[in-house]
Amino acid sequence: MHPVIDQLRAIVGSQGILYEQDELFVYECDGFPIAKGIPLAVIFPTNTQQVADCVKVLNQHNLQIVPRGSGTGLAGGAVAYDRGVIISLSRMKKIESVDLDNRVAVVQAGVRNLALSDSIADTGWRFSPDPSSQRASSIGGNVSTNAGGINTLKHGVTVCHILGLEYVLPDGKICTSRAEPIYDGIGADLTSLICGSEGTFAIVTRIWCRLVVNPKYFRTVYAVFGSTSDACKTVSDVIASGIVPTSMEMMDAGMIQAVESAFHFGFPSDVAAMLLLEVDGIDQVLDEELASIVQLARDNNAGDIQQCSDPVRRAELWTARKKAFGAVGRMSHSYCTQDACIPRSKLPEAMEHVAKLSEKYDITITNVFHAGDGNIHPIMLFDEDDPGQVQQVLLLSKELLEYCVDIGGTITGEHGVGVEKLHLMDKMFNRNTLDLFLDVKKTFDPDQRINDAKLIPSDKTTIELLKPIAANIPGGAL
Amino acid sequence: MTPTTTPPRIITGLSGPPPEGDSHQRALQLEQQTYDRALDCVHCGLCLPACPTYTENGLEADSPRGRIYLMKGLADGKIQPTETVTNHLDLCLDCRACETACPSGVVYHELIEESRVKLSTKKRTRMMDRLVHGVFFHVFTKRRRLKLLLLPARIAQKLGLGRIIEKSGRLLPVQLEKMQSMLPPDGPLWESNLNKFYPATPHDGVKRSTVGFFAGCVGSVLFQHVNRQTIALLNHAGCDVTVAPLQTCCGAIDHHGGRLEPAKCYARKNIDAFDTDYIVNNIAGCGAMLKDYAHLLRDDPNYAQRARDFTNRVRDISELLPQLEMPQPPHPIEQTITYHDACHLAHAQKVTKPPRQLLGTIAKLQMIDLVESDMCCGAAGTYNLSQPIMARELAERKLQHVIQTGAKTCVTGNVGCAMHIQSEAKRLGVDLKVVHPVSLLHEAYFGIEE
Ligand SMILES: Cc1cc2nc3c(=O)[nH]c(=O)nc-3n(C[C@H](O)[C@H](O)[C@H](O)COP(=O)(O)OP(=O)(O)OC[C@H]3O[C@@H](n4cnc5c(N)ncnc54)[C@H](O)[C@@H]3O)c2cc1C
Ligand code: SF4
Ligand code: SF4
């Protein structure tokens, strides 16, 4: 047994640590089951001080530290590849205070996104970020990946809703920034720097969350189309018209089928694409906005357009959308969701390109995505136990993301880089910028002990996913 | 930044494919269909918050995703069924909340049940385990034996000795103490049997259906009054009710305990016993098992088709009543209640709205929503006897939410939940009455029973 185990046990107690091989096995991967690694141990602190004490002990042993929320991440970020130790936040799930007068809730990092909104449901307030995983994913995880969601288009990503953070640095020091219900505007915005850093700077332990009032009035419609490019064209026309919908989501035929077989919502079966759309705001204005949107859809050959005014139906509609990824399991044993942002005007051609790649690599792809943000999610269906298919999926992803960058997009919209997209960082950023990234990391983490070689290419370690054929790929290791 | 000269160390982030080779090294050999179920899991984690054990302890291995991963790991020969692994599988309540949450349609219970069957060949060595299992399999499933077992406890209750038994907790092993504490406070010494036939007494003169009533074993002994009330409501709604004399235990206790053959045997007997339009029950656990016969007997050439036909006719009482055009119940009930979804009703049978609708027809009855109403209370069949600690933690969680509602009555459609919640409330000194929805409906239609 590694000597660190006893020291950690002394901090978190015998119920707060796992180190037997069988039990570590389930921590081998997160929501991206391609990438795998077995940790040395998993610890379950219940408060910030325990996190800090554990981190100090881990430093003495020169071990990698991997923070983990709910493990729904889709980029292999919450996995320990180098026999590191996972710090699970799953027992730090206290909602410490809710202050509606000042619109702020203080939570421990392991609190689930929806648990916070549910706990204040009767007040008419909520925590706005709504990733589709919001029922399961932790707010700490949302902060670390700067999660987006269905209403991101209008209400913004996670960082827009974070007032302050408490975090433990990789040397065990505890810091807080902007931890008040008001903006202080002092100096560089450390809080925003931590948001989206995917656990490569610090371990987030406590979060001051901004609360917002639920919109009172909204209109929800879904429209079907005979071609994906008509649907995509509608999206860019709506945006160009100046209307900012709360959400504008698209599903293609395969996805509609999967969602229909899971939730029996009553979607038509013979269409190529569907747009789900919602606007919220001032009651009087909404009908006008809705009319313009419907007109734009009709101009782009929309078939049936249905309004969904019953609140129960509306809730069912969005639940079905949020569970769409999971419903893919009905079509295939494993899937890999790609995630990229592209200019909305390029959506139609990008969808065509996706279809071409699907053919080229002989991998079925289905699509459901935040169309309003230009955030595409081609979902590749494959079998995780078939190494040949795994390889095809990785190669397809690479070609697809490079294409997205070439047309002015990014390699991720919201799921993060993790290990999955690490090899594309140099496609996205020039050398100077990458060096700056690493320098910033080293300011927080000089010894590169926390989530090293994730998100930011490291000069110490590389985590490879495609070893066997790396040599065949022009341009270097993948 | 100081440029480094040494190139980065390379770590591979992929694990190899499942090991090939001798299948006897694979500790768990699942049927192909069941193995495919495990593969349906796409590892998304959306089921995590629905799982009571994960919610309590935050361990991935005690989540549905983790357990599926363990079972698949066993089937692939990647891990061995060590005590740690089987403990995680044993701690599962088989409450099926993960199935409701899973968008991918993983039929989890088939996976865990088959795995348990195949892993349970391991000898149960501990004396206490054997005793408890003996009681489960040989007494709980036989009505007469159960009545005999209960007789001394009932006499003690009648003589006011219950307190002494409760205090003697140290002498009784925790499981037996739990069994005794779950006895409903009132009940006759020797429960009389139901008649074989109860003719319809329709409120509007219209006869509607023939119903076979499934009485259950624990239910028919401990909750005979609920059975009588159920029959009265069905008669009132215009149904002829037969209590098929050849019916037997539903088989759930054996099935969950990994004893497949006896479970199938019960299933065949019950299929032979009922020839009515509907087979109605008021115990969610039994109902879920009856609805599972089609799956249980899928490979039985003589019974597969009959089992499917049987399953299609099974209804929980709360499912059937709303279809029978009952009038508005005449007696108001001035009470505040809350409703707890029994797992085997909500998750196994997906029945959540009908009981609430039925209760909603009762005048003056105020129903307050229960937080986490569909999270398991820890009863889970015989779980509260085999995993008393987790069962208590979950009951405490449930009771905390119940207390928040302010209701002094908790309504639930399963005997097991009712006994468990009631006994835990008593242990913690919570003033609470747990009743079956049928009892409230009966009161609303026929007034207070003498
Ligand atoms: C079905 C499904 C749908 C999804 N939909 C969306 C979506 O709509 N939008 C979206 O943005 N994402 C989505 N995701 C991805 C994922 O849910 C989000 O990235 C989420 O924010 C991860 O939260 P988590 O608690 O699961 O974090 P984890 O997966 O545990 O961790 C994610 C990363 O953050 C780090 N981390 C976690 N907690 C901390 C902490 N406290 N301190 C420091 N670092 C930490 C980890 O090391 C890791 O690198 C989806 C995932 C699934 C499976
Ligand atoms: S929700 Fe379903 S698919 Fe997702 S992890 Fe759980 S069991 Fe697997
Ligand atoms: S059946 Fe219940 S206890 Fe078991 S894994 Fe599913 S949700 Fe958890």
Q: Would you kindly provide a written description of the structure presented here, covering whatever features stand out?
A:
The complex is a heterodimer of chains A (478) and B (450). Chain A has 478 residues and is α+β, with helices and mostly antiparallel strands. In chain A, 33% of the residues lie in helices and 20% in strands. Chain A folds into 5 domains: 4-88, Uridine Diphospho-n-acetylenolpyruvylglucosamine Reductase, domain 2; 95-213, Uridine Diphospho-n-acetylenolpyruvylglucosamine Reductase, domain 3 (2-Layer Sandwich), CATH 3.30.465; 218-326, Alpha-Beta Plaits (2-Layer Sandwich); 332-406, Alpha-Beta Plaits (2-Layer Sandwich); 422-470, no CATH class. Chain A has 16 helices and 21 strands. Chain A has a 7-stranded antiparallel beta sheet with strand order 15-12-14-13-18-20-16. Chain A is globular, with a radius of gyration of 22 Å. Chain B folds into 4 domains: 23-119, Fumarate Reductase Iron-sulfur Protein, Chain B, domain 2; 127-182, no CATH class; 197-322, Rossmann fold (3-Layer(aba) Sandwich); 328-446, AF0625-like (Rossmann fold), CATH 3.40.50. In chain B, helix 23 (415-427) links the parallel strand 9 (409-411) and strand 10. Chain B has 24 helices and 10 strands. Chain B has helices at 32-39, 52-57, 64-75, 83-90, 97-101, 108-119, 127-140, 143-158, 162-167, 174-181, 218-222, 224-236, 252-256, 260-273, 284-290, 293-296, 304-313, 317-320, 343-346, 353-360, 383-386, 388-405, 415-427, 437-446, and strands spanning 9-12, 197-198, 209-213, 239-242, 278-281, 314-316, 335-339, 365-368, 409-411, 433-435. Chains A and B meet through helix 2, helix 9, helix 12, helix 16 and strand 21 of A and strand 1, helix 3 and helix 4 of B. Strand 21 of chain A pairs parallel with strand 1 of chain B. One iron/sulfur cluster binds at residues 50-53, 64, 67, 92-98, 108 of chain B.
